[in-house]
Design brief:
With 678 residues, the protein is mostly helical. The strands form two sheets. The protein has a four-stranded parallel sheet with strand order 1-2-3-4, with helices on one face. A two-stranded antiparallel sheet has the order 5-6. Strand 2, helix 3 and strand 3 form a beta-alpha-beta unit. Helix 15 runs antiparallel to helix 16.
């Protein structure tokens, strides 16, 4: 770092006691002489050869080597001699005589005499000067500078190659160039940081100095370290900025290519395997179980599609983020990708939704068809069982249940038609684009199946309706049969009640002829009522016979109802005839008695009718005898009219009247007895 009086640089060569390698020294000199600029070299060098610790032959060899290494640049060589001078050596070789041959001047000088040729401020402490110099510090920073220079130069070449490759050629060549030289051999950030630290050191004037003492200020045109570093840093920053832009463009292009690749993966799968899965799934099944199996298969297909739809959502978000970034050169391509992806995904999602709705409608259709089939089976089973009710009420209940089941079947068939029509509408709306092929044949099979199910259910329902009509007629006839049997039994009961009333309440024979005639007339009306009841019962029983023949069954009650009716009617007839005879006898008795009792005793013709009294008495006795005799029925049973007290009361009234008649008879006889005596 020191300078001689000509402003030439001072080069110091310290020699030591060990053997000095001339090759290494030559290389070192070449390196050191390459550091200054050409302008500095033109001013020449002053070389200080410190031979105080070396031998003369080594010093001489070094001086001669300078002739071969730097003959033109060296202007003065100062050989610092030891205290004990090589006198004999000098006699054999005088440097001043060899000046013309060497090309520079060589002087032998003591260390303390160097100040004659070089200013003390330009000499280090080793030579009695004041120049502060730390060789290890200079060496370390020089190594840093050399490393930075080497790395930055190499990095600049690499970055220039990368950047220039990205600016030239076709897009394919550009991508190939970037692919081959994309990553630099060293980290640009690290090199830039090293350069900035080195520049900071140089700017603080510490490159050839130390932190303490007097530091000198090297001239820029002498040591070009600082300008070189600044120039390299500027070049690095420029190329690195371009390189970052290239990386950004490359990253954007890579991201765009990745998005394109993923978009095509999604599109290719949805239009390929995804669509193929839907093409193979066109049926609706022929039962609930088959439809459920198809639904399960469709859910598996939806699950596979869901994974790709998730990728679609992620890609859509990435594309939206790139669109928001506002790179106009990629907007058209990104929007085209987004549109293509959305169209394919929405179309596939629509197909999946259509298929799901179709299968759900088919499942509902088959469910309604199964319920209707079970209802028809239940109704048919009910119709196939023979009717054997206990009474008319149970028949009415069964008929009501039958009507309810038929109504439920009607509602079920109506629901099946609605579900079937809805399913047919969905199938008819299915266009060829839905699965990418013509689905007319497959749809025809589905349509034929749906229509076949509805027609079959309609036929089954019609058969059941016909059977219900027959069963309804039969059950109504049975209701009528039960009603006739019940009414016939009721007629028997009524006739029995009339018989009972005849025996228990129709007792009086009347107090006179007029009253008895009234009773006789009432009795005839009473008999007419009984006759009507008997005829009504006979008609009902005849109707039951006709109904039984129509129903082809044996009546369960008419068989014993008719004998009962005839038996009660026979008993009533016998009892009625006895009642009539008694009343007619009573009328004859009362009429004859009243006639005799009402005749005047002074009438002479009365005495000629004594025999009438005997007839009246005979009738009265006959009537009294009938009152004590029971009514005897064909089965041998007997019944009395009224209670014994009732009969006694009636008999007492007849006896009193007979007494009156007898008294009248005696009165008529007394005049006869008086007349003969007189």
């Amino acid at each position: 770092g020191g300078k001689d009086r000509r402003s030439g640089l001072i080069l110091t060569i310290p020699l030591c006691l060990e053997q000095t390698s001339m090759d290494e020294l030559s290389v070192t000199l070449d390196y050191l002489l390459s550091i200054p600029s050409e302008k500095c070299k033109a001013r020449g060098f002053t070389v200080i050869v410190d031979g105080r610790k070396s031998q003369w032959n080594v010093v001489k060899t070094v001086v001669l080597m300078l002739q071969n290494v730097v003959p033109a640049e060296v202007s003065l060589v100062c050989v610092v001699k030891p205290d004990e001078f090589w006198d004999k050596k000098v006699t054999h070789f005088c440097f001043w005589k060899e000046k013309d041959r060497l090309g520079f001047e060589v002087i032998l000088v003591s260390a303390n005499k160097l100040t004659r040729y070089i200013e003390p401020c330009q000499l280090t402490e080793d030579f009695g000067g004041t120049l502060t110099y730390d060789h290890m510090d200079w060496l370390n920073k020089r190594l840093v500078f050399e490393k930075f220079t080497k790395e930055s130069t190499s990095l600049l070449d690499e970055l220039a190659l990368i950047n220039n490759g990205s600016d030239k050629g076709t897009q394919q060549e550009k991508e190939r160039s970037i692919d081959l030289n994309f990553l630099p051999s060293v980290d640009p950030e690290t090199v830039l940081q090293t350069g900035h630290e080195l520049l900071s050191e140089l700017q603080q004037r510490r490159f050839n100095g130390s932190d303490g003492g007097i530091s000198w200020s090297p001239m820029d045109d002498e040591l070009l370290a600082q300008p070189q570093v600044m120039k390299l840093l500027d070049s690095l920053r420029e190329q690195y900025t371009r390189y970052q832009e290239v990386c950004r463009q490359r990253s954007k292009r890579t991201q765009l290519e990745e998005i394109q690749q993923k978009v095509m993966q999604v599109v290719n799968w949805l239009e390929g395997p995804g669509s193929e899965q839907l093409r193979t799934q066109w049926g609706i099944g022929d039962s609930i179980r088959a439809s459920q199996a198809l639904q399960q298969k469709h859910e598996e297909i939806e699950s596979q599609h869901s994974e790709w739809f998730a990728v679609y959502v992620e890609l859509n978000q990435q594309i939206a983020a790139l669109l928001n970034a506002g790179d106009e050169e990629d907007l058209v391509e990104l929007k085209a990708l987004q549109q293509q992806l959305s169209d394919v995904c929405y179309r596939q999602a629509s197909q999946l939704e259509f298929r799901q709705n179709l299968l759900q409608a088919a499942l509902e259709f088959h469910s309604v068809a199964q319920d209707l089939s079970q209802q028809l089976d239940g109704l048919l089973g009910m119709l196939c069982v023979d009717v054997a009710p206990a009474d008319g009420a149970s028949i009415q209940q069964t008929l009501k249940l039958l009507e309810e089941k038929l109504k439920s079947v009607d509602l079920g068939l109506q629901g099946l038609r609605e579900k079937g029509q809805s399913l047919l509408d969905q199938i008819s709306n299915q266009a060829s684009w839905a699965y990418g092929k013509d689905v007319t044949i497959e749809n025809k099979e589905n349509v034929d199946h749906i229509q076949g199910v509805m027609e079959d259910m309609q036929l089954r329902k019609q058969r059941c309706e016909d059977m219900v009509d027959v069963r309804r007629l039969k059950m109504l006839q049975m209701v009528q049969l039960f009603k006739c049997e019940e009414d016939a039994a009721q007629a028997v009961e009524w006739l029995s009640e009339l018989l009972d009333a005849l025996l228990k309440t129709h007792i009086r024979l009347g107090d006179d002829a007029q009253e008895t005639k009234v009773l006789l007339e009432k009795h005839r009306k009473f008999v007419d009522v009984a006759q009507s009841t008997y005829d009504y019962g006979r008609q009902l029983l005849q109707a039951t016979v006709v109904l039984c023949q129509s129903l082809r069954c044996t009546s369960r009650s008419s068989g014993d109802t008719l004998p009962r009716l005839n038996r009660v009617w026979k008993q009533f007839t016998i009892t009625s005839e006895e009642r009539v005879q008694r009343l007619e006898t009573a009328v004859a008795f009362h009429s004859s008695a009243e006639k005799i009792l009402q005749e005047c005793p002074e009438q002479p013709e009365a005495f000629n009718e004594i025999e009438q009294f005997d007839e009246i008495e005979a009738v009265g006795k006959s009537l009294l005898d009938r009152l004590t005799v029971p009514v005897v029925y064909p089965d041998g049973s007997e019944q009395y009219f009224g209670s014994p007290s009732d009969m006694a009361s009636a008999a007492e009234h007849i006896r009193e009247k007979m007494k009156l008649v007898s008294l009248k008879k005696q009165q008529l006889r007394q005049p006869e007895a008086t007349t003969p005596e007189s």
